């Protein structure tokens, strides 16, 4: 691994002690040994959102085995969006791949996103995972389908699944986006607001093998209503202007 890797894999975690080691090893298996532009030149940045179990201890133990692994710890619990942003800020790669820390995203899909980037135009700055065969409960799938339909109607972001944790995006473009809690659920709309294009890519989805979900359908819905109104306002008030030096 170089001091400036081509790719940084950012993983936010909260109380995921039993999922840390399997996921880290899967990331390494998916990327190590590949060509640099295909993800072989990479680092892994875990952001611990002040876990109360053995997550941090598990990460510290893994650092001795996995030289690509770096660990950032929040000094106060701040939520997933802040963890993603702080991971991106700490990352050294020009491109960022994100994964949820629960193991439901498949690291083997990262090369697929990189391959899609290689065949896409430069103005595409976000490649969003699309869970075409979700392995969640029926109520969770129904709630997600309902939320995606409302979001798509309001924001017109042409994205079938914004809640998927696996994404690939340019670091610089991400850091220019407005930051707010839960903003990670609206990255396609926010990238488009900034003048960039986005592409959805079908990816694998797996059942959670350990730990418990940190969300339920009710709290997602209550927060989502307020967020949607806010993002719609941002889009309405946004303006992108090309410039040139004279």
Verbal overview:
This protein is of the alpha/beta class and 246 residues long. The protein has one domain (7-237): Spore Coat Polysaccharide Biosynthesis Protein SpsA, Chain A (Alpha-Beta Complex), CATH 3.90.550. The chain is built from eight helices and seven strands. The protein has helices spanning 17-31, 55-63, 80-90, 110-118, 138-155, 171-175, 187-193, 217-237; strands at 7-13, 42-48, 69-73, 95-98, 124-131, 167-170, 197-203. It has a seven-stranded mixed β-sheet, sandwiched between helices. Helix 2 links the parallel strand 2 and strand 3 (69-73). Helix 5 runs parallel beside helix 8 (217-237). The longest helix has 21 residues, at 217-237. The protein is globular. The model has no long low-confidence stretch (mean pLDDT 89). One of its GO terms (cellular component) is plasma membrane. This is Glycosyltransferase. GO terms for molecular function: undecaprenyl-phosphate 4-deoxy-4-formamido-L-arabinose transferase activity.
Task: Give the gist of this structure.
By secondary structure, this protein is an alpha/beta fold.
Layout: helices, strands, pairs:
Elements: E1 7-13, H1 17-31, E2 42-48, H2 55-63, E3 69-73, H3 80-90, E4 95-98, H4 110-118, E5 124-131, H5 138-155, E6 167-170, H6 171-175, H7 187-193, E7 197-203, H8 217-237
Parallel strand pairs: 1-2, 1-4, 2-3, 5-7
Antiparallel strand pairs: 4-6, 5-6
Overview features:
lipopolysaccharide biosynthesis, Spore Coat Polysaccharide Biosynthesis Protein SpsA, Chain A, about 250 residues, 8 helices, 7-stranded mixed sheet, alpha/beta, globular, Glycosyltransferase_2, single chain, Nucleotide-diphossugar_trans, cell membrane, Glycosyltransferase
């Amino acid at each position: 691994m170089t001091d400036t890797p081509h790719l940084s894999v950012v993983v936010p975690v909260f109380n995921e002690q039993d999922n840390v080691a399997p996921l880290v090893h899967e990331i390494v298996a998916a990327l190590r040994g590949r060509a640099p532009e295909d993800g072989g030149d990479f680092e892994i940045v875990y952001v611990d959102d002040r876990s109360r179990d053995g997550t941090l201890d598990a990460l510290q133990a893994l650092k001795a085995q996995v030289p690509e692994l770096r660990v950032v710890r929040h000094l106060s619990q701040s939520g997933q969006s802040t963890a993603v942003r702080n991971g991106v800020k700490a990352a050294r790669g020009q491109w960022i791949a994100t994964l949820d820390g629960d193991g439901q995203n498949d690291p083997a899909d990262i090369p697929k996103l990189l391959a899609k980037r290689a065949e896409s135009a430069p103005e595409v700055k976000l490649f969003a995972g699309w869970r075409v065969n979700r392995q969640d409960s029926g109520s969770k799938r129904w709630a997600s389908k309902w939320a995606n339909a409302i979001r798509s109607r309001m924001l017109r972001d042409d994205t079938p699944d914004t809640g998927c944790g696996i994404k690939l995006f340019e670091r610089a473009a991400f850091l220019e986006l407005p930051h707010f809690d839960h903003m990670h659920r609206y990255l396609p709309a926010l990238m488009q607001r900034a003048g960039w294009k986005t592409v959805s890519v079908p990816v694998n989805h797996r059942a959670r093998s350990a730990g418990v979900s940190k969300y339920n359908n009710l709290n997602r819905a209550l927060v989502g209503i307020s967020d949607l109104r806010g993002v719609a306002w941002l889009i309405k008030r946004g303006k992108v202007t090309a410039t040139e030096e004279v």
